[in-house]
Write a structure and sequence with these properties.
The complex is a heterotrimer. By secondary structure, chain A is an alpha+beta fold. Chain A is 26% helix and 16% strand. Chain A has 15 helices and 22 strands. In chain A, helix 2 crosses helix 3. Chain B is an alpha+beta fold. Chain B has seven helices and four strands, in the order H-H-H-H-E-H-H-E-E-E-H. Chain B has a four-stranded mixed β-sheet, covered by helices on one side. In chain B, helix 1 runs antiparallel to helix 2 and helix 3 crosses helix 4. The longest helix of chain B has 13 residues. By secondary structure, chain C is an alpha/beta fold. Chain C has 17 helices and nine strands. At the A-B interface, strand 8 of A face helix 4 of B.
Chain lengths: 545, 157, 417
């Protein structure tokens, strides 16, 4: 194991570690453009030059491995001068249009210029003209004049997305990124291009011109797009400009997790957040009056829900109620649901497995066929197999044996079509608790607005059994409420129920009661999640009374 | 009509392919064959070559645009490629360039309206000992003088 | 004048044919090498010869061969660099056109010594005749059993392929050449790994210049020491082909000892300056070599001596400029060349070469200022040693040397225009 001295501090690293990576271990950041930890090294931008004692010239820290006893300096005048020079070169043909560039504020050319140069331009010549607003398909736009030809995007497409589609055409200072005329990017990972692009050359249509980056706050989250549980950061704003049109969440970007998603997000997941601020969000409890829904307050809605459930159980028994939760809900939501319906009301007919819920397309990279973030959690919490299946419940509704359906975030009509539609129309009582209006909600008698994944604390358990944390970025829209909280309030109306004040408190109970979660805390989950030790075979853990 | 090599060229291509340890290496030779056969390497030709070799289309385009000798646009019957690098310039290549421009009434990169001549300037052709030099298609004319250029242009029918 | 060696067949009728080549003693070295020598002995002889790469970098050829691992899971390759693109250089073309069998023979010996069974000759696209001649020679050699399977019944196999470039100076850089050979655009690779370890198709690869390769048969035939002694006394390294162009009375390729004074090349062999004018400047080793002033031309033409005075031996191309030469124009031509030929991969070269070219163009148009000259030098210093491959340093050779050595002339030009 070589030991290297960088800026007078020592670090021992694995053989073959680059100087840049070794420096990172010491917390020393070496600016770079073409280098990306997940892509092949091309040694092209020359921004990461450092001084190595004894070397006749500066060396690129991305491509040179440390040697034992190597002495490296990353901040000498010689190094700074080289950085300034590279920046000057990169800027001569770069348009100085930061004020209208979407990358402004998070552009590495801008950042490094302010950190390392701040020199006026000496360039008196005409800039090279290149293509602007190049259409690379429905997701990404290219501005070649802003491109610094670092080729991260080219390598990303080829090496990660498995699509050799971007290339560099021409040569010298006319080098230009592009696709073959008429071709468009087709892969499911294009959003990452806007992330890996260090400058404003590649931007996502979804985000372009919507919000300046400096108006955005960030918080760690988990992509709810599928059961893979990709680690992400949600970018949101607390401001309320007219121009934002009520939009609060602006994008999801990937967050590194080597065991889950490396540093990538797929497009399906990345751009699946739109429901959060969508016009069909449920923001108030409501109750059906004839054909219409009438908005009401939580007290009225919850009282009505509790009373009607109670009456039905009393009149027909617990088996007259079916509960269909969604694996979109967090472990905390689902545990509270289980406590309420399973333990308190003794309802056995709880099943989250709406037929077809896990039959999307698996792209063999990140995106899983099951487009729900918490299927494994729902399984571990025993939310299937205790009573009737969803399909059987529908039949029983039709037969008049099941009188009420409680849809917790689920949308059976979407998956089962007419069969569910018919059942929901026939049921004496349909309660829909969820975030957005949908075909199932349309048939409900009581509507309870739930909070989305960015509006609550909680955890998801991904397909591998890794428990990962989502964090509350925003207050729930309107009167919406975290699902676990709704269940808690209902539970307290219906009997003896824990007075959970936070998702963390719910989780502490999960850790206590559900074997695979034993010993886990929010703190231990941290930012990278924690993998459960799963028992062999199907897990049907019972939440205790 | 779909672009396709003639049987003879296909045969040649097969020979070329057999020479290389790896298929991709035959891309430059394949483009040479294509240029010979079709004169111009159009996008359709690129797609054909890409399929022929199983090389991604974007790589064909990269190669095509990187090298100066492949032509993506149609040229005149005679492609005049005048070297204007150092040895030729020292011995009057730029005067000769002016002469040709004047005579043909075209600028560098242009083709005469009768599609007879296309004029290009090129980098050192390796004929510095007999500079200035002009390459016309595959032939080289050395030790150029304005008079010789006039004669040459007259000769090329 | 000494008997020509490398150029002994130049000018002979049908010198490119096997018959003429064999009449002049051709393929004897190959027979000697394959039948009488062990690979290590061959490498030793080449080492002793002091032969340094004739492409430009001047790396000792024997040493290069010895870097190739003996055992390799991947096939080993020989790539012969005939992408002769360095402005002012035209000697490899002479060899290929007039003595192609020397290249074939040299290749056979090289491959036998290093344990290679596939060799590729990368010829620049413009050299149509060279390609024809090489292909002709290779065909003849196959027919004669000098190539193919079981050469001379020694059990040694070798195939040679001629690969045509398509117009890119950068492909003369060895790793760019490998990329181009593999069917990609010619952009240099990062080093390490060096081609001797990971080269063509990922296999260990020897990359030698045409002239270097053509020198091998002579070294094997007459011994490394003999070759070394052909160089100037105290310098050694054999003979090399100098391409002389520009304002001399007799431009052409001259075979002369390594270390011959530049003055002798210009005034004795090339006949002096045309019209008996005064010498203003001379580039001693291809356009990338920093320019020399008349008072510097007593320098011995070999790698170390030229490096000492801040220039380089490069490809052995001598470009002579007389007193009437407009150096602003010359520098514009050269800087445009590098700007045009930069592959575009690394920042300083891609952006810096283009910038310098634009400035000198503006100066030539009469829109320059004295401070623009400082900017050129400062851009050049920003490129110096910081590029991925040597093209950056090649471009700044002329930029810095012309502007600093002939500053007054540039200043005068700016004032006058």
């Amino acid at each position: 194991m070589p030991t290297v001295t960088i800026d007078e501090r020592q670090v021992t690293v694995d053989p073959g570690t680059s100087i840049l990576e070794a420096a990172k271990k010491l917390g020393i950041f070496i600016p770079h453009y073409c280098y990306h930890p997940r892509l092949t090294i091309v040694d092209a931008c020359r921004m990461c030059l450092v001084e190595v004692k004894g070397a006749p010239k500066l060396v690129t820290s991305c491509s040179n491995a440390v040697a034992d006893n190597m002495v490296v300096f990353t901040d000498t005048p010689k190094v700074e001068e080289a950085r300034q020079s590279v920046l000057e070169f990169l800027l001569i043909n770069h348009p100085l249009d930061c004020p209208i560039c979407d990358k402004s504020g998070e552009c590495l050319l801008q950042n490094y210029y302010f950190c390392h140069s701040r020199k006026p331009s000496r360039f008196k010549e005409n800039k090279v003209k290149k293509h602007k607003v190049v259409d690379l398909g429905p997701k990404i736009v290219l501005d070649s004049e802003r491109c610094i030809v670092c080729t991260r995007c080219v390598r990303f497409c080829k090496e990660v997305a498995g699509e050799e589609i971007l290339g560099i055409f021409n040569r010298a200072d006319h080098s230009e990124i592009g696709v073959f005329p008429g071709k468009k990017l087709e892969n499911n990972y294009q959003g990452n291009l806007a992330d890996v692009c260090p400058v404003g050359a590649l931007t996502a249509r979804d985000f372009r011109f919507k919000c300046r980056s400096w108006f955005l706050c960030q918080i760690d989250t988990i992509c709810p797009g599928c059961s893979n549980g990709c680690n992400a950061v949600v970018h949101f704003t607390l401001r309320n400009f007219n121009g934002l049109k009520g939009q609060r969440v602006f994008r999801l970007t990937p967050r590194e997790n080597n065991d889950v998603n490396k540093v990538w997000l797929c497009d399906v997941g990345r751009w699946g957040y739109a429901f959060v601020d969508s016009i069909d969000r449920l923001t108030m409890p409501a109750m059906r009056k004839g054909e219409d829904f009438v908005k009401t307050d939580w007290n009225t809605a919850l009282k009505e829900t509790a009373n009607r459930l109670k009456t039905l159980v009393e009149r027909y028994g617990a088996n007259a109620i079916g509960v269909i939760p969604s694996p979109h809900l967090t472990n905390e939501d689902l545990y509270a649901l289980k406590c309420l319906f399973g333990c308190l009301l003794k309802i056995a007919n709880i099943d989250f497995k709406v037929p077809g819920f896990d039959k999307g397309e698996d792209d063999k990279i990140l995106l899983k066929a099951d487009r729900h973030p918490n299927t494994k959690g729902a399984e571990l919490l025993g939310l299937s197999g205790t009573g009737l299946s969803v399909e059987a419940m529908m039949d029983k509704v039709k037969a008049g044996e099941i009188k009420a359906l409680y849809l917790a975030g689920s949308d059976p009509v979407k998956y089962m079509g007419e069969k569910a539609e018919e059942a929901l129309s026939r049921a004496e009582l349909v309660i829909f608790q969820g975030t957005n209006f949908n075909a199932s909600c349309k048939l409900a008698h009581i509507v309870l607005p739930g909070a989305t994944f960015v509006e609550k604390e909680g955890t998801f358990t991904n397909y591998q059994g890794r428990v990962q944390k989502v964090n509350k970025a925003l207050e729930p829209l309107g009167e919406a409420m975290a699902d676990w909280e709704i269940f808690t309030r209902l539970g307290q109306m219906l009997g003896v129920f824990p007075s959970y004040r936070s998702a963390e408190e719910v989780f502490m109970d999960i850790a206590r009661e559900v074997a695979p979660f034993a010993g886990i805390t929010y703190k231990k989950i941290g930012s990278q999640g924690i993998k459960l030790t799963l028992p062999e075979g199907p897990v049907l853990s019972e939440a205790k009374e | 009509m779909a672009v396709e090599f003639s049987e003879k060229t296909k045969e040649k291509f097969k020979v070329v392919l057999g020479k290389y340890p790896e298929k991709d290496a035959a891309l430059l030779p394949a483009l040479w064959l294509a240029q010979k056969e079709f004169s111009v390497i159009t996008p359709e030709v690129e797609e054909y070559v890409s399929k022929l070799l199983g090389v991604p289309l974007v790589r064909v385009r990269e190669v095509l645009t990187f090298y100066t000798m492949y032509t993506a646009k149609s040229l005149g019957k005679y492609h005049l490629q005048l070297c204007t690098n150092i040895a030729c310039t020292l011995l009057g290549a730029e005067d000769i360039l002016g002469r040709i421009k004047n005579k043909l009434q075209i600028d560098v990169g242009e083709t005469t309206p009768d599609k007879k001549f296309t004029l290009s300037t090129v980098e050192c052709l390796g004929y510095c000992g007999t500079a200035p030099v002009i390459q016309v298609n595959d032939d080289f004319y050395e030790n150029l003088t304005p008079k010789k250029v006039d004669e040459l242009l007259g000769k090329l029918k | 004048m000494a008997e020509p060696i490398l150029s002994r067949n130049f000018g002979k009728k049908d010198s490119h044919t096997l018959q003429v080549y064999v009449e002049g003693g051709g393929y004897e070295a190959m027979k000697k090498a394959l039948k009488e020598m062990k690979p290590e002995q061959i490498i030793q002889e080449v080492d002793k010869s002091g032969l340094k790469g004739r492409g430009g970098a001047g790396f000792p050829v024997g040493k290069k061969w010895s870097f190739i691992p003996k055992e390799s899971p991947k096939p080993k390759y020989l790539v012969i660099n005939a992408d002769e693109g360095e402005p002012g250089t035209f000697k490899d073309r002479q060899i290929m056109e007039q003595d192609p069998h020397a290249v074939v023979e040299g290749a056979i010996i090289t491959c036998f010594a290093v344990g290679i069974h596939w060799a590729g000759i990368y010829v620049r696209g413009e050299y149509v005749k060279s390609i024809e001649r090489l292909e002709g020679a290779i065909e003849e050699a196959y027919a004669k059993g000098y190539l193919g399977k079981n050469i001379l019944e020694t059990g040694f196999d070798l195939d040679i392929v001629v690969h045509r470039g398509a117009g890119a100076y950068i492909c003369g850089e060895e790793t760019a050449l490998l990329e181009s050979f593999e069917g990609k655009k010619g952009q240099p690779r990062k080093k390490p790994p060096f081609p001797a370890i990971v080269g063509l198709f990922q296999g260990p690869t020897v990359i030698n210049n045409i002239e270097s390769t053509a020198s091998i048969p002579h070294i094997i035939k007459n011994g490394g020491e003999w070759w070394n002694n052909l160089g100037a006394p105290g310098i050694g390294g054999g003979v090399r082909l100098f391409s002389v162009s520009g304002h001399v009375k007799k431009p052409g390729v001259y075979e002369l000892p390594m270390g011959i004074p530049l003055r002798e090349i210009i005034y004795t062999h090339a006949g002096g300056i045309r019209g008996d004018k005064k010498l203003k400047a001379v580039i001693p080793g291809g356009s990338s070599a920093p320019v020399l002033k008349p008072e510097e031309i007593d320098v011995p033409m070999e790698f170390v001596s030229l490096a000492k005075i801040g220039s380089m031996a490069g490809s052995g191309a001598v470009i002579v400029m007389d007193e009437d030469t407009n150096l602003v124009q010359v520098l514009r031509v050269l800087l445009n060349f590098y700007a045009h030929e930069s592959c575009g991969k690394c920042t300083p070269c891609r952006e810096g070469t283009g910038w310098m070219a634009k400035i000198i163009e503006r100066i030539e148009k009469g829109e320059g200022q004295s401070e623009d000259l400082d900017t050129i030098v400062s851009i050049a210093n920003g490129i110096r040693t910081r590029t991925l491959c040597p093209l950056g340093d090649a471009a700044i050779g002329p930029a810095i040397s012309f502007v600093t050595k002939f500053r007054q002339e540039f200043e005068d030009y700016i004032k006058r225009h």
